[in-house]
Design a protein that fits this description.
Helix content: 40-55%
Number of domains: 1
Low-confidence stretches: none
Shape: globular
Order of helices and strands: HHEHHEHEHEH
CATH superfamily: NADH Oxidase
Oligomer: single chain
Largest sheet: 4 strands, antiparallel
CATH architecture: 3-Layer(aba) Sandwich
Radius of gyration: 17 Å
Distance between the termini: 26 Å
């Protein structure tokens, strides 16, 4: 499967089979994440693998009762070490670059997981302080996403996308052209 096929195949999965994820597959998914670009090559991402059912249940509660997080065999909490980026780029690094960097790592994870036959869901709706408490995350580290991963127990249809002609402009905002 080429990269464009993987991109088009990826879906947000909220129903998982209980099959375990082999460590070598988990390693491949995380390896894909660390090859994401980052500002100044600072690589502020940090990953907490949650394979404890009790911890996944606590994460699901912290994520506004999104119970499917607990149903996946693992969840990865992707964090940004804010100070790692802020130490070089100041406030912009703390408020933007570290988030952009971890977002790129997350997308790589999602695509790698899909290519390996796993389903994922990018969960951003959660109470930060609760997640930090559940996982003992220090103050300078910010949880950015919770990614449940497992073999999918559903196969959602593709969602409609906005046409390129509605969202692409040339040389200035609103200057419509054709690709």
């Amino acid at each position: 499967m080429n990269v464009f096929e993987v991109i088009r195949k990826r879906r947000s999965i909220r129903k998982f089979r209980s099959d375990p994820i082999p460590k070598e597959d988990l390693r491949k998914i995380l390896e894909a994440a660390i090859w994401a670009p980052s500002a100044g090559n600072l690589q502020p991402w940090e990953f907490i693998i949650v394979d404890s059912l009790e911890k996944r249940k606590e994460l699901a509660r912290a994520a506004l009762n999104q119970d499917f997080i607990a149903e996946a065999p693992i969840a990865i909490v992707v964090c940004a070490n804010v100070m790692r980026t802020a130490s070089v780029y100041g406030e912009r690094g703390a408020n933007l670059y570290c988030i952009q960097d971890t977002a790129a790592a997350i997308q790589n994870m999602l695509l790698a997981a899909c290519a390996l036959g796993y389903g994922t869901c990018w969960v951003g709706a959660f109470r930060d302080e609760e997640v930090k408490k559940v996982l003992n995350i220090p103050p300078e580290v910010r949880p950015v996403a919770i990614i449940p991963i497992g073999k999918p127990a559903e196969s959602p249809s593709p969602r409609k996308r906005r046409p390129l002609d509605d969202i692409v402009f040339f040389n200035s905002y609103g200057n419509v052209g054709k690709l």
